[in-house]
Amino acid sequence: MPRKTITYTVTDEGRDKGKVFVLTEMPASQAERWALRAFLALAKAGIEVPDNLAQMGMAGIAMAGVQALSRAPWQEAEPLLDEMFACIRYQPNPQKPTIVRALIEDDIEEVQTRLKLRAELLKLHVDFSNPAAP
Fold first, then answer.
1. What local confidence, expressed as pLDDT, does residue 13 receive?
2. How far apart are CA 56 and CA 62, in angstroms?
3. Residue extents of the structural domains in the chain
């Protein structure tokens, strides 16, 4: 089965309104490494780990890791944040959905869009609709 992919259209007012992005799930091995690196950044920053984290599986580790990124040292958070954005491609013309390309700096013009894309990526990877997820 191919990796999960979703299309996200910006609906918020601003310079990005109407822009379309294609988000693709990381391969399982990469997602696991990403979640573990995020978790280690959390622990290294001295951020308390939830008691039930082990029972939450990789989904829980990923969620805790992303929350920690806001408090982790920048030199550890930056590569994780960059790696998230490697999962995003831009669809410059919604009328031609087969034309999708890698992001360039000017594709995203609003900070709010970046934050929403990160949230959508997290949802895509954690997949709370999966019966195995807590």
1. 97
2. 10
3. 5-126
